[in-house]
Structures are given as C-alpha cells and as structure tokens.
Amino acid sequence: MSHSDCLFCRIVAGTIPADVVHDGERLLAFRDINAQAPLHVLVIPKEHIASLDAAGLASDLLGEALLLAAEIARREGVAEGGYRTVINTGDHGGQTVHHLHVHVLGGRALTWPPG
Ligand code: AMP
Ligand code: ZN
C-alpha cells in the first residue's frame, strides 16, 4: 500500500525526485540527500513497511535488500575498502523516516561505536 504522506512512498511513486541507483521489481535504491560518507545510498522496499519492527514475515525482502546493498557497494567501488549497512529503528534507533530503509555507507573509514 502506498502512503501519500510518506516521503519514501512519494519517491517510489515518482512525485518527489531522487538520485536513483537501482530500480527493481520490489526494491528502490537512491542517494541520501544528506550524505554522511562519499557513498551513502538508501535501499528501500517499494511497498510501505514502517520499520524493521513492522517487517513481520518479509524475510525474503529483507534478504534481498541486504544483498542489493552489497551489490551497490561493489558497483560503487567501496566493497574492497569496506562499508557499513545500517537500519535505524524507532526513536532510540534514530529513525526519522518511517518507511524501512537500509543505509549503505562507504568510501571512508567509519568510526565505532555510533553516538
Ligand atoms: P533515518 O534517520 O535512518 O530514518 O534516515 C533517513 C534518511 O533519509 C536520512 O539520512 C536523510 O538524510 C534521508 N532523506 C531524507 N529526505 C530525503 C530525500 N528527499 N531524498 C533522499 N534522502 C532523504
Ligand atoms: Zn512509505
């Protein structure tokens, strides 16, 4: 179901522009508007799923999203140096857009632990 008040559903629908790097059957990937690393891509399901906590039985979709993240990292040339995949969930997780997304960050050495 598409949510007209959801930012990422609007990107899927094409009513808000995005720098798309992958447009598949079930997944869309586009560059983060506020990149935190030389490579910062978001992988999202085209279907509205609010968060990982609401992902229910969508295990195949989650697996597909992680494998697409890896494919994008390779294609963008950051796989050799290493990269990070992140899913922020809920308030304490720092989730600001309530449509499930996997961050793919790479192209520089990232610190740990997170803030
Ligand atoms: P999170 O804080 O984990 O919910 O991540 C949401 C991400 O969406 C942030 O990194 C934002 O910079 C990014 N973002 C917000 N609006 C847009 C947009 N219109 N296009 C691309 N990325 C966006
Ligand atoms: Zn949505």
Account of the protein in words:
The protein has three helices and five strands. The protein is an alpha+beta fold and 115 residues long. It has a single domain (3-106), classed as HIT-like (HIT family, subunit A, 2-Layer Sandwich), CATH 3.30.428. It has a five-stranded antiparallel sheet, with helices on one face. The longest helix has 17 residues, at 59-75. The protein is globular, with a radius of gyration of 14 Å. The mean pLDDT is 96. Bound molecules: adenosine monophosphate and zinc ion. Zinc ion binds at residues 3, 6, 8-9, 48, 99.
Q: How do the helices and strands line up, and which of them pair or pack?
A:
Elements: H1 7-13, E1 20-23, E2 27-31, E3 39-45, H2 59-75, E4 83-86, H3 90-93, E5 102-106
Antiparallel strand pairs: 1-2, 2-3, 3-5, 4-5
The chain binds adenosine monophosphate (AMP) and zinc ion.
Zinc ion (ZN) binds near residues 3 and 9.
